[in-house]
Write a structure and sequence with these properties.
single chain, 251 residues, alpha/beta, Rossmann fold, 10 helices, binds adenosine-5'-triphosphate
Length: 251
C-alpha cells in the first residue's frame, strides 16, 4: 500500500498554546482516513496543516514535516499555492462563491490560466457528474450557486475542489450542516472519489467514520492516541482512552 501523505513529528502552537504535540502518521493512497476525538483536541488544526492553511495565521508556529509523495510540503521554496492545488479542502459549511454554478466550478481552472470555453465546459460537466449533481443542475448552470440547497452546495463545493484535479481531498466535517439524505449522498460520493483520490475527513459522527473510513485516528489533547483500521479501532480499541471515548465517557 503506497503512502500518499506522511506526517512526521508535527508540532503546532498558536502563540504559546501547544495544540499539536508530535503527530506522526501515514495516510495511504486511495483510502479514507477519519480523524476523531473530543472537541478542541486538534483535528481541524492537523487537517489544515496538511495543506498549509496555517501559512495565513501569523500566530501559528509549526515544526516537523508533512510529506506528499515523499516531498516535504513545508520545504523552503515549496509553493503553498501549488501544495493547495494538489491537496484540496472542503469545509464544514458549504462556501459557494456568489457566482454562477458554472463559474464556481471553473474558478480554479481560470485562475490557473485555462480559459478555453469548451475545455471548461467539459470539466464542469465531468466534475458535476462525478459529484452526482449534474442531473439536478444541468439546466441551471448560469444560476447563482447560492440558489442551491445546502446539500447541493456542498456537492458543488466538492466538484469545485475536484475540478483542479487534486491528489488529496481534506474534508472538515463536510456533513455537519446537512440533513441525513444529503449526508448519505456525500458519503456515497466519498466512497466513489477514493478510487481517484486520497481522503482525510474530520468527523464527530462515529457512525460516519465507520461507514466511510478505512482507517481511523483517535486524537486527544494534540496527540494521536490510536490509529488503526476502522473496524479494529471501533471493535477492539487497544488504548483505554479510546475505549472510554467510544463508550461516550467523555467528549
Ligand atoms: N487561530 C487560533 N488561535 C488560537 N487558538 C486556536 C486557533 N485555532 C484553534 N485554536 C485552539 O486550538 C485547539 C484545537 O482546535 P481545533 O479546531 O483544531 O480542534 P478540533 O479537534 O478540530 O475541535 P472541534 O471538534 O471542536 O472542531 C483548541 O483549543 C482551539 O481553541
Amino acid at each position: 500500500m503506497k503512502t500518499k501523505l506522511q506526517v512526521k513529528d508535527l508540532h503546532l502552537a498558536y502563540g504559546t498554546k501547544k495544540v499539536l504535540k508530535g503527530i506522526t502518521m501515514d495516510i495511504p493512497e486511495n483510502k479514507i482516513v477519519a480523524l476523531i476525538g473530543p472537541s478542541g483536541c486538534g483535528k481541524s488544526t492537523l487537517l489544515r496543516a496538511m495543506n498549509r492553511m496555517h501559512d495565513l495565521s501569523p500566530e501559528a508556529h509549526i515544526t516537523g514535516e508533512i510529506l506528499l509523495d515523499g516531498e516535504n510540503i513545508y520545504a523552503p521554496g515549496r509553493d503553498a499555492v501549488d501544495v493547495r492545488r494538489k491537496i484540496g479542502m472542503v469545509f464544514q459549511k458549504p462556501n459557494p462563491f456568489p457566482k454562477s454554478i458554472f463559474d464556481n466550478i471553473a474558478y480554479g481552472l481560470k485562475i490557473a490560466g485555462k480559459h478555453d470555453k469548451q475545455q471548461l465546459q467539459e470539466v464542469v460537466e465531468r466534475t458535476l457528474k462525478s459529484s452526482y449533481l449534474w442531473e439536478e443542475v444541468k439546466d441551471d448552470l448560469d444560476k447563482s450557486a447560492l440558489s442551491l440547497s445546502g446539500g447541493q452546495q456542498q456537492r458543488m463545493c466538492i466538484a469545485r475542489a475536484v475540478a483542479v484535479e487534486p491528489e488529496v481531498l481534506l474534508m472538515d466535517e463536510p456533513c455537519s450542516a446537512l440533513d441525513p439524505i444529503s449526508t448519505a449522498k456525500i458519503e456515497n460520493l466519498m466512497l466513489e472519489l477514493k478510487k481517484d483520490y486520497t481522503i482525510v475527513i474530520v468527523t464527530h459522527n462515529m457512525q460516519q467514520a465507520q461507514r466511510v473510513a478505512d482507517l481511523t485516528a483517535f486524537m486527544y489533547f494534540g496527540e494521536v492516541m490510536e490509529y488503526a483500521p476502522t473496524e479494529e479501532l471501533f471493535g477492539n480499541p487497544q488504548v483505554e482512552l479510546t475505549r472510554n471515548y467510544l463508550d461516550g465517557n467523555f467528549g
